[in-house]
Write a structure and sequence with these properties.
This protein is an alpha+beta fold and 95 residues long. It is 39% helix and 22% strand. Belongs to the UPF0213 family.
C-alpha cells in the first residue's frame, strides 16, 4: 500500500493557502518550487510547505484532503499554528 501525504503550501507573504495530496511529498513540493505544472500554485507563487500529515494509505490522505478543502481558511491557519507557528518552510529541513 502506498503512503499518502496531505499538505498545505503558501506564498512568501502567506496570503494564499493551497491544499494538496500526494504519494511522494518531497517530489511534489519540488515540483511546486520549480513551477513544473502551470496552474494555481504557479500563478500564485505557492511554494512554501507550511504543514503536512502522513497516512499509511493514499486513500486516507485523499479523504483528509477533501475534508481540509471543505474547511475554512481559519481552520487551516489553526492547523499550521499548532505545528508550525512561525510558518517556516518545512521543506528546508532534512529529507
Amino acid at each position: 500500500m502506498k503512503k499518502g501525504y496531505v499538505y498545505l503550501i503558501t506564498n512568501k507573504n502567506n496570503t494564499v493557502i493551497y491544499t494538496g495530496v500526494t504519494s511522494n511529498l518531497q517530489k511534489r513540493i519540488q515540483q511546486h518550487k520549480t513551477k513544473f505544472y502551470k496552474g494555481f500554485t504557479a500563478r500564485y507563487n505557492c511554494n512554501k510547505l507550511v504543514y503536512f500529515e502522513v497516512f499509511d494509505d493514499i486513500k486516507q490522505a485523499i479523504l483528509r484532503e477533501k475534508q481540509l478543502k471543505a474547511g475554512s481558511r481559519a481552520k487551516k491557519e489553526q492547523l499550521i499554528a499548532l505545528k508550525n507557528p512561525s510558518w517556516e518552510d518545512l521543506f528546508e529541513g532534512d529529507w
